[in-house]
Amino acid sequence: MLRCFVVRMWLRLDSNRALHDFLVKDYYPYNRKVLKACGLIRLPDRRTFDRRLKTISPDIKERISSMGNLFVKEKLVDPYIVSVDSTLLRAKGHLWHKSSMIEGVVPRSGIIDTGARLGFSHTKGWIFGYKLHITASTGSLIVPLSADFTQADVQDNQIYPTITSSLPKGLRYATGDSGYDDHKLYNLSTERAFELICPISEIYNNTSSDRLQLIEFYESELGQIIYSWRSIYQ
Predict the structure, then answer these.
(1) What pTM did the predictor assign?
(2) Most confident listed range (12-21, 51-60, 128-137)
(3) What domains are there in the chain, each with its CATH number?
(4) Gap between the Cα atoms of 156 and 159, Å rounded
(5) Distance (Å, whole) CA 215 – CA 228
(6) H or E, element range at 151
(7) How far apart are CA 114 and CA 46, in angstroms?
(8) Cβ(38)–Cβ(19) below 8 Å
(9) Are 38 and 104 in contact (CB under 8 A)?
(10) Exposed e or buried b per residue across 193-223, where buried means at least 16 C-beta atoms within 10 angstroms of its C-beta
(11) Using one digit for the tens of pLDDT, what is the confidence trace for 182-212?
(12) Higher pLDDT, 152 or 96
């Protein structure tokens, strides 16, 4: 079930039903391979997914971290370059409008997830739900190394310190999109003995020398090679 959960997150499927619908299809060659990789001889009922996946939710972060560290320990993946990212997951039920949320009014009691919030991504637009934050290895074998779950309105840079705190030894570079372009995160990464590489677009007349060095490295041949490994992960 943990493997199935990882597949759901990795393919950015927004529900257990979508996961079941993906696995039940047999006209794509990789669907059967994914099913086999999950250790399933046959596909369980969708309600089984609902029941079993619910039981692993409380300690899923620890399970993913342990699994990632095991892959590194067994030298199945190299943590030298990792990628950090997030994806929005739609909540079940109807949208809880901000005006009603502020007033504490739930207009359709029972079919609104009051724990969810509204978040935005350039690929999905506005989504009412939650956000999965994840770091993963890059290369031929991609494995989650750490993860966290928040409401959809939580910014990526707020969770970066948490999801990079338990990464395995051997990490040299962490690559992320412009949402991680934060001076505090660059310093934190350096303190943890690795470098954060991400696009830096805003340059002003008074841009500090430290920031100019970050831009110069990102745009260098080596910086672009390192960042290109992120596309393999995505």
Answers:
(1) 0.73
(2) 128-137
(3) 1-58 (no CATH), 59-233 (3.30.420)
(4) 6
(5) 16
(6) strand 144-151
(7) 24
(8) no
(9) no
(10) ebbbbbebeeeeeeeeeebeebbeebeeeeb
(11) 999 999 999 999 999 999 876 767 788 888 8
(12) 152
